[in-house]
Each structure stands twice: as C-alpha cells, then as structure tokens.
C-alpha cells in the first residue's frame, strides 16, 4: 500500500500556485441559474474549453460524477457527461493538461475501473488522474440499487476498493484477494499504466474518516474552504496528519470581470435576478443534509447563496487584482492550488488567462507559459 508519506507517483506542475477547471462536464457547471449565460455543456464546448485551458497553461481539469437529477427550473446536476468516458475524449483532445475522472466506488467494480483508467492513461500519455469518492447522496444509491452504508463504513469499503485498484495496476501476475468486501480469484489488469508509474489519485474527503482515507491512499487532497480566515491552521493540521507537505487543493468558483462594478453586476444577474433557488435548496438537502459529516448543518444553511453561484464551493469574486490577491492569500496559507468552476467557461476563462495569470506571474506564483511546444 502506498501512502501520503511517500512521494506521489506523478506531479502536475512546478508552479507555486496551480489552477484547474472544475466541473465543465455538467450543464450549468456548479452554478444554479436560469440565465442565458449559463454553461451549455455540449461535447464541442467541453473539448473547446479543455483546449483553451491547455493552451493557457492551466494544470488540470476535473469533472464531477453526477447521477440523479435535482428539482429546479433548469437542467442541473445529473444532466452531465459520465466522467470516465468524458476524460478519455478530453485526453485525446489535449496535449499537456492533466485530466481527472471522478468515480463513485460503491457503483463500479475496481477491476473494471482499473482497465478503464489504464486505457485513459495510455490515451493521454500519462496525463490521467482519478478522483475517488465514496458517495453521499442517498438518491444515487437508490438509483443503483446499492445499499448506502453508514458514513465511516463507506470509507472502509473505499479503502479496500482502492487497495485492490492499486494492486491491479502494480502487480504483473494474477492474484487472489479475500477481504471484507471483495472475494476475488485470479484477478489481473494489463497493460500496466503508461510509463511504468500510475495515475495520480486524489480525494476530497473532509470528514475524519475521509481524511484518514486520503492520508493512507491519495496523492493529493482537495479540501473545502468554508472561510479563508483559518485556512493556514487547517492546512498545517492536515499536513501534520499526513507526515509530509502533501499537495492540497481548494475547490472554488470564479466570478471575475475586468472591473469590480462589472463583476458585481454579473454576480447580481446570475444569483439574485436569475438564481435557481429551488435547485440550490435541493443541493443543500441532498448533499449537505442528514448523514453527511463534511460540515455542520448550520454552516450548510448559511451558504445557500454560495450553492447558487457555485455549488457551495468557495467564491472567488472581484476584478483581476482582487482575484490574484485572493490566490496569493491562499498560496501564502500553504494551498498548492485551486480547481475553479465558472458560470460560462468559454466566456469567463479568457479573463483568467489574459488578466489574472499575468498578475500571478508578477507575484511569483506562476512561471510564464509559452503555449504549444513549451515544457512545464
């Protein structure tokens, strides 16, 4: 078993603060709005934003794995592309960027995922990574006809699932496995991952059981940011548990225009004029309701507006100077980088590329990226 106490199998970038595109495979992204500006997640648009992010020098692109449809006035979670096959297509459409898939361990056998992941890894020449999640939405479990175990039991299952996955990648000969959840004979998965290593494993587990799983099995951790005030303390505690300076990424959403006034007007339109409050409340009930341990219920109640603008992730809002300073504050606190969703990725990413990235370079957080032919 590999652990977070060992060096990760692969790294994404040498930049001090790394950036990725979050959830473009979902119609509307993370934003719950009826505005005509909302993200239309067609395949052509997904391929286009992936190439744009690749050419801008962003480090990664991370999809959601969604199943059930939420109530609301517009298509939202569940109206999405399946993450593993989506990743295969995105890897074939790009050259440098790391592409993750997200997989729910209760719904897919590890042997099947091992073969899928190896295929993606070879398509991308070693640029594939896997986000492992245990599931938290009861309707999804009912859809699959799968028992929804107690929270900590789900992570016990995921730990055995992940141990099997890594053995399938690492062991050249068939083996037997007789564990608590799996009883398998003569299993194998060839060819090996590309280049003799293995895909990067990430986890967004933030409960005590989730963090224990991540420390033992993941190469990087994605953490929720409820407030930036105590971020440095949280990061210090996580890395103390891990026993090394493990890469830590935040999950957020970006609303940025060239001026503060334009940004506020854009935000007001998306959230207060066209916000899909019914869908936001459904997210709060389904994801942050009974049985979850990632955040206290009273905190979840306070962030309904953040649910609208970006699925409850941290809101990074302002003009390019504001955004660059927010990212610097995160970096100074010890954060490795951030995955950011946008209202409309094709409309919004050019501001990040043309205005924010140069400011991050001047702050010493990122090296200039020359584009095609440049090696990071």
Automatic annotation (TrEMBL):
InterPro entries under this entry?
A: Luciferase-like_dom (IPR011251), Luciferase-like_sf (IPR036661), SsuD_RutA_monooxygenase (IPR050172)
Domain Luciferase-like: from-to ranges: 18-336
> Gene3D superfamilies given for it?
Luciferase-like domain
Query: Which Pfam families does the record associate with it?
Result: Bac_luciferase
- Look up the signal peptide feature and give its range: none
Query: Which superkingdom is the protein from?
Result: Bacteria
A GO molecular-function descriptor: oxidoreductase activity, acting on paired donors, with incorporation or reduction of molecular oxygen
Name the UniProt key words of this record, in alphabetical order: Flavoprotein, FMN, Monooxygenase, Oxidoreductase
Query: Under what name is this protein listed?
Result: LLM class flavin-dependent oxidoreductase
């Amino acid at each position: 078993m590999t652990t977070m106490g060992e060096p990760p199998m692969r790294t994404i970038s040498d930049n001090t603060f790394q950036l990725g595109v979050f959830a473009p495979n979902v119609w509307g992204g993370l934003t719950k709005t009826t505005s005509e500006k909302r993200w239309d997640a067609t395949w052509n648009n997904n391929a286009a934003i992936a190439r744009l992010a690749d050419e801008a020098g962003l480090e990664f692109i991370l999809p959601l794995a969604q199943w059930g449809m939420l109530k609301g006035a517009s298509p939202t979670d569940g109206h999405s592309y399946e993450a593993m096959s989506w990743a295969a297509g995105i890897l074939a459409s790009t050259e440098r960027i790391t592409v993750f898939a997200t997989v729910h361990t209760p719904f897919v056998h590890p042997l099947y995922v091992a073969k899928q992941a190896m295929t993606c890894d070879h398509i991308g020449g070693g640029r594939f990574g896997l986000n492992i999640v245990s599931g938290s939405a009861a309707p999804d479990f009912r859809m699959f006809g799968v028992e929804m175990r107690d929270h900590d039991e789900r992570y016990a299952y995921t730990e055995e699932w992940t141990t099997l996955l890594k053995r399938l990648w690492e062991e050249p000969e068939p083996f037997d496995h007789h564990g608590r959840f799996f009883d398998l004979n003569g299993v194998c998965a060839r060819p090996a991952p590309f280049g003799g290593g293995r895909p990067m494993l990430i986890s967004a587990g933030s409960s005590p059981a989730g963090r224990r799983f991540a420390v033992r099995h993941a190469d990087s951790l994605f953490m929720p940011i409820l407030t930036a005030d105590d971020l440095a303390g949280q990061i210090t505690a996580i890395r103390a548990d891990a026993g090394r300076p493990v890469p830590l990424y935040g999950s957020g959403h970006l609303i940025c225009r060239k001026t503060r006034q334009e940004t506020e007007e854009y935000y007001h339109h998306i959230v207060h004029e066209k916000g899909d409050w019914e869908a936001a409340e459904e997210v709060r009930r389904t994801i942050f309701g009974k049985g979850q341990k990632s955040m206290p219920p009273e905190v979840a109640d306070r962030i309904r507006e953040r649910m609208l603008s970006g699925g409850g992730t941290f809101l990074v809002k302002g003009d390019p100077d504001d955004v660059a300073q927010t990212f610097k504050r995160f970096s100074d606190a010890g954060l490795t980088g951030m995955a950011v969703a946008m209202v409309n990725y094709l409309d919004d990413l050019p501001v990040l590329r043309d205005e924010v990235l140069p400011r991050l370079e001047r702050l010493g957080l990122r090296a200039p990226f020359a584009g095609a032919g440049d090696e990071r």
